[in-house]
């Protein structure tokens, strides 16, 4: 793998990590505000995380 | 009645689509990348996997090749050295030819069947002459003819085993309901999951009116992916959902069911989006059309990449034990592998859930009826 490919892969991972991290963060804030809605928030968080991971993997595999 | 037909369609579709689409998969990217490191090694022997030399780059090549062999589909069920059985090879080349893959002799001998000769080169079957000669082009790819391949490979065999297992499991569970409507034995574990799929995945996304038609497909897909992911976690080297042809078939069937069940509102929203100025409508149509194909494509890639990446990472960390070869760091790698395997178990169930939920979402958007203001 040459340098541009490695840099590209790193950027993709940074993007995916930032996205999922933000979702996790706001999910935690929401759970802290309303603990009884934890199950639904968790579900929505997992769905969003899986979608972002899908984009990340698609980009990685298309390189 | 329609749900039974959907279930039958889903099963036969999975079996039929999985076989030929894999067998003509010429562009398996992972394998090609590994193969370019081993251009000089024409006959990857199984015995080589256990010979470690002092040259560390050689170890890395051996590890990579072991991983590639572990994750790729193959024409025989090879558990370990000496334990395994060959699978039938079914070719359609001037007539149906069925023979056992043991005739290939692990890729060393030429299989002669009714006058035609076939040879196995890097896990693909090529038609050749009695000497087994292959002509290569400049990228070291053979240019021989490739027969139509409907073989029962390892992945197809596992799909069939899983299909039989699921039919037996859920059939017996369904019959075990007595007059008191409480589940027995395995039903006690599976019934909450089935109810979860119905109440949290199907009804919220598809709606009360139409969800029953799609329940059988959603349940099938959920348990199929989940059980196959779990089977892939065993060390038998059965990597079904990490095979892009399998996930392609699943995504294709979801796509077909979505389009077939699309109502007028669905097509209107794609091609002639209401509530948008006429000038923008063609632009929206193109964007929606692209989205129409991107959604099942992302289903395919998501499952494939998650499973394959998980397996590759796990096996690479185990391979690191051999690359470093020191007693000190090996327990650390072992612990890391253990933790990551636990994560992979979660990912197995999560990916099944995500696939099912997105499929339900697409079905819901196809059948929903708005009341337009």
Q: Give start-end ranges of low-pLDDT stretches of chain B.
A: 17-53
**Main sheet of chain B?**
3 strands, antiparallel
Q: Into which percentage range does the β-strand content of chain A fall?
A: under 5%
Number of strands of chain B: 8
Mean pLDDT of chain B: 79
Q: What sort of overall outline of chain B do the alpha carbons produce when their principal axes are compared?
A: globular
Q: What Rg of chain B do the Cα atoms give?
A: 24 Å
Low confidence ranges of chain A: none
Number of contiguous helices of chain A: 2
Residue share in helix of chain B? 55-70%
Secondary structural class of chain A? mainly alpha
The portion of residues assigned to helices of chain A is: over 70%
Let me know the largest β-sheet of chain A.
Answer: none
Biggest contact: A-B, 12 and 13 residues
Q: Approximately how much beta-strand content do the residues of chain B carry?
A: 5-15%
Please tag this protein with its features.
heterodimer; A: 63 residues; mainly alpha; 2 helices; B: 373 residues; 2 domains; 3-stranded antiparallel sheet; 10 helices; 8 strands; globular
Please describe what this structure looks like.
Chain A is mainly alpha-helical and 63 residues long. Chain A has helices at 3-33, 38-61. Chain A has a domain at 24-63. Chain A has two helices and no strands. In chain A, α1 packs antiparallel against α2 (38-61). The termini of chain A are close together. Chain B folds into two domains: 87-151, no CATH class; 156-367, no CATH class. Chain B has helices at residues 2-23, 29-37, 56-71, 154-175, 186-206, 211-233, 244-260, 264-271, 281-324, 330-367; strands at residues 76-80, 83-86, 88-92, 96-100, 111-113, 116-121, 124-128, 148-149. In chain B, the strands form three sheets. Chain B has a three-stranded antiparallel β-sheet with strand order 4-3-8. Chain B has a three-stranded antiparallel β-sheet with strand order 5-6-7, with no helix packed on it. In chain B, strands 1-2 form a two-stranded antiparallel sheet. The radius of gyration of chain B is 24 Å and the shape is globular. Classes of the chains: A mainly alpha (63), B mainly alpha (373).
């Amino acid at each position: 793998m040459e340098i541009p490919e490695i840099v590209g892969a790193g950027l993709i991972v940074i993007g995916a990590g930032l996205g999922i991290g933000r979702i996790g963060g706001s999910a935690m804030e929401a759970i802290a505000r309303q603990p009884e809605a934890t199950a639904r928030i968790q579900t929505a968080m997992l769905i969003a995380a899986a979608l972002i991971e899908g984009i990340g993997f698609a980009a990685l595999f298309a390189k | 009645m329609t749900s039974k037909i959907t279930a039958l369609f889903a099963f036969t579709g999975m079996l039929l689509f999985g076989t030929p689409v894999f067998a003509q998969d010429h562009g398996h990217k992972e394998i090609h990348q590994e193969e370019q490191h081993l251009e000089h090694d024409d006959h990857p022997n199984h015995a080589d996997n256990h010979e470690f030399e002092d040259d560390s780059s050689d170890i890395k090549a051996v590890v990579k090749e072991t991983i590639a062999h572990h994750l790729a589909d193959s024409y025989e069920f090879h558990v370990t050295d000496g334990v395994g059985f060959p699978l039938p090879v079914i070719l359609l080349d001037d007539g149906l030819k069925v023979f056992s893959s043991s005739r290939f002799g692990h890729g060393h001998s030429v299989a002669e069947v009714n006058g035609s000769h076939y040879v196995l080169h890097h896990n693909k079957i090529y038609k050749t002459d009695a000497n087994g000669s292959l002509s290569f082009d400049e990228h070291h790819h053979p240019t021989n003819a490739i027969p139509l391949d409907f073989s029962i490979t390892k992945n197809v065999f596992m799909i069939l085993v899983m299909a039989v297992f699921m039919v037996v499991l859920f059939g017996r569970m369904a019959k075990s309901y007595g007059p008191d409507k409480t589940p027995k034995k395995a039903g006690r574990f599976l019934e909450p999951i089935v109810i979860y799929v119905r109440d949290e995945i199907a009804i919220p996304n598809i709606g009360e009116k139409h969800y029953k038609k799609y329940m059988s497909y959603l349940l099938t897909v959920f348990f199929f992916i989940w059980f196959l992911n779990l089977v892939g976690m065993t060390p038998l080297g059965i990597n079904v959902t990490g095979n892009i042809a399998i996930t392609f078939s699943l995504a294709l069937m979801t796509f077909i069911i979505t389009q077939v069940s699309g109502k007028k509102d669905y097509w209107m929203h794609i091609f002639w989006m209401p509530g948008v100025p006429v000038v923008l409508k063609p632009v929206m149509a193109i964007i929606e059309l692209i989205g129409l194909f991107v959604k099942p494509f992302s289903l395919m890639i998501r499952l494939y990449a998650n499973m394959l990446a998980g397996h590759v990472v796990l096996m690479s960390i185990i391979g690191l034990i051999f690359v470093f070869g020191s007693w000190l760091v090996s327990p650390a790698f072992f612990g890391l592998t253990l933790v990551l395997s636990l994560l992979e178990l979660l990912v197995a169930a999560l990916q099944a859930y995500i696939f099912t939920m997105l499929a339900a979402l697409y079905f819901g958007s196809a059948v929903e009826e708005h009341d337009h203001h």
